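Morning - 1,3-dihydroxyacetonephosphate inputs below, output right after.
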Amino acid sequence: MKFLEAEFVQGFIRMANDGWEQGWHERNGGNLSYRVKPEEVESVKENFEAKEWQPIGTSVPTLAGEFFLVTGSGKYFRNVILDPAGSICMIELDKTGENYRIVWGLVNGGRPTSELPSHLMNHEVKVEKNPNYRVIYHAHTTNIIALTFVLPLKDEVFTRELWEMATECPVVFPDGVGVVPWMVPGGREIAVATSELMKQYDLAIWAHHGMFAAGEDFDLTFGLMHTAEKSAEILVKMLSMRPDKLQTITAQNFRDLAHDFKVTLPEKFLYEK
Ligand code: 13P
Ligand code: ZN
């Protein structure tokens, strides 16, 4: 099969373009990775041309030998749909989980996203808990970023405030949202901090930078990012009208919702204000 005709490649391209259309990917902002299924690797491997092994910059032994579709560093989400072979690549990890090599894509040169350590460490945490998780998505979501300048950088506060802004939020992300304080992006340190949060949450906010989402497929992961960012937009609008709420969804309302929708909402987010 031609590489670009594969359904998982089409799904990846569509998701990248959806993110661009939301306005979350100025210039080369954001990155996306997908852990490819063995049968999907098999279906496109006739197209592979392996390049040199390169260090990942961290160690992900659980993912040894796996293949990932990832956006290229410095490449624009805007261009993914127009020139996928120049904007994204497929990589293979070696047997130690410390090196990768490009096997397809980035035809004009380049390397995978600078956030590869964060992506792979998040994948590793997720796969250990649930092997169905395959997508890690980093976006520069405008309203979430704006809120990191005015809300305390605490998991409890961000989770509760986002939950209060849209009734569906606690159902879509019942585990809550984690927050990483500002850190230098692109390295192992921020990857360790983010993957630590991914042990508990499917969403991690990077203060003054953006957000990471994890999920089983493209729809669920994009939908999660979209839901949290929409809620942040409502909060920004609300705070622009007045600093306090006249009425809201209460802690008891959340408990009632959790009962009827059969989700578990941790009590640490249902504090009395
Ligand atoms: P890359 O172009 O290397 O993916 O970096 C973009 C980004 O958002 C860094 O956090
Ligand atoms: Zn970024």
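Note: Residues 29-30, 138, 140, 185, 209-210 surround zinc ion (ligand 2) (CB under 6 Å).

O.
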